Amino acid sequence: MEKNTKDSRSPSFVSPFDEVPVEILENILSFYPDGVIKGRRGTVHLGVISSVCKKWQAVATNIPEFWACFEVTISPAFSYPSPPILNMWLERSGFAPLSFSLTMKNFNYQISSLLGNLPELLCDLLLREVHRWRNVAFTFPEVDPDNSLFPPNLEAPFLKSLEVYCHSSWSTIPARDILWLSSLASNAPSLQRFTAHGAEQFRDLPVPWERLTHLYLQQSISEQDARDILERSPCLFSCNLIDTGVRLGGQSSLFSSPEMITCNSEELGVCTRGDLGRFFSVLDAPNIKSLEVVFVNCSATWDISMLPKFLSGSRASEITNLSIRNCLLSNEQLLTCLRSVSLSLTDLNILSDNLSAREYIKVENVDETVLRALTHNSDSSSVLCPRLRNITFERCLSESDDGILSDMVESRWKKKTIQELRSVTVVFRYHTHPVDAVRLRKMITEGLGGEVRFGPPQIFRHL
Question: C-alpha 17: how far from its chain's center?
């Protein structure tokens, strides 16, 4: 009794980490080379461990990678970090390669003067370490600041990733900043990744297209732009074209030329506000492994029959990841797509989050026919997509087929004759599948990955 009373009065709880040697703790945290932990509740900079205790502060101080990944925000309303703090981060980062973003926002001519020389101080600190830049992102404000961020003669020998963002698709980068961006792009022999978001002048940057392995363009581009970019980028591994075929001032005819477009990328993502029928009719993608197709606003008038025809071609028979969002495929067209990639497909995502403000359109192409085709039976040789591991269905299920979805999932889970399902994520449009919801949640509690939830469709206006 006395022992229990004494134990209950223990002054503090002793964490198991208190007994871990510093060397082992450093090795554990070194598995996060970018100095960032990504969890369910967001992203946490590993520098916060310096505030846990003195021991962890010593660990954080002695690991340069923790301080080599950061964000810099310059704004009349709020700026962070201050020059002394940024200087401390850079000193603690030692010789580690730097990954950072520099964001300038909320500028206007009346209050930008309140910043004084803060932008120059912060940029000077970054400029001193230009030889360590590896992954950098620059976001330009809607209203230009008074001075250029950097001098027009930048050289970054170890730069691998360059990202350029503008306030909107109609924003432009100041000419004085184009000078140093051009210098940075042309004097970066290791550059392999390029992102342009709303930056009309990306065509003016001397990007080494022939060396790029990853390309992300969220900018209205014409047919000729797309052809030129893909032809000049033979080493692409991942390519994402957003707003393809849409020019400022209205929609254009997409890929009207009969000449084939060759895309050597293994990962291809295309997002458009227009019709993609012509795109797939002239696309040659010999190395494609992952395909994502997104319509910003679906329309019943668009011709999407070319997508099943493209997937039926021999060049698309090795696709392992297929993602279709807001695509008005019929159930027969969807089955044609799945049969074309059946032997290789491991990840299937069919999503609908779009109801046009002009026309009420529901995308419900996953019906009983599709689900029964995916259901495993005793004859494993005839099952559709036998290697399927991950499934996501969002607001695309027919309302009257309660129970069939969970039958399909159960038939493919814990089966040794085909690839076992790892995760199933389902978002029902309304509370129309109570049986499926109960059975799927039970399987998830028993070890199946994924989640089940209800989510009304999102309504978007035409951009």
Answer: 34
Taking residue 115's Cβ as centre, other Cβ atoms within 10 Å add up to 19
Alpha carbon distance 172, 177 (integer Å): 10
Q: Compute mean pLDDT per 10 residues along the chain, 463 residues long, and list them.
A: 45 60 69 51 54 70 81 83 92 91 70 68 93 92 66 91 78 77 92 85 82 88 77 90 52 54 88 70 87 72 71 77 87 90 93 59 80 80 86 87 90 77 90 90 93 71 36
* Phi, psi dihedrals of residue 37, rounded to the nearest 5°: -110, 125
Helical axes 434-445 vs 404-412, angle rounded to 10°: 20
Query: What pTM was computed for the model?
Result: 0.78
Q: φ and ψ at 119, to 5 degrees?
A: -60, -40
Side-chain-side CA neighbours of residue 158 (13 Å): 12
> CA dihedral in degrees (79, 82, 83, 85; nearest 10)?
-140
Task: Collapse the DSSP code of 263 into the 3-class scheme (helix H, G, I; strand E, B; otherwise coil) and give the result.
Answer: coil
Is there a contact between 54 and 83 (Cβ–Cβ < 8 Å)?
no
